[in-house]
Amino acid sequence: MDVTQGNEIKREALNKIHVGMRKSEITPILGNPTLKDPFHSGRWDYIYRYVPGREQAIQSRVTLFFDGDTLIRIDDSDYRESVEVKQESGDAEQKEQAPEGSI
Q: For residues 41 and 74, what is the distance between their CA atoms, to the nearest angstrom?
């Protein structure tokens, strides 16, 4: 059984985010962060984990840093494009793209 957890972020959505945006502008695009620590209100973490059956887990993370309400930095160094699972003649095929450079 495949298991998914967290926020799956598509590259198209991530490309819409840029430094200078407000939190209220980001939430409609990426959704609510997976981790939003009340002691570190200037950091949002979007974590996505996919475990295809008994295969090795694939994890992706995007971290946004804020100064007050304004986005000042995007760390997508651990970002992985979402995994596509295709059923072809009963066999599951996985596809993961290499991470792109930081924004």
A: 15
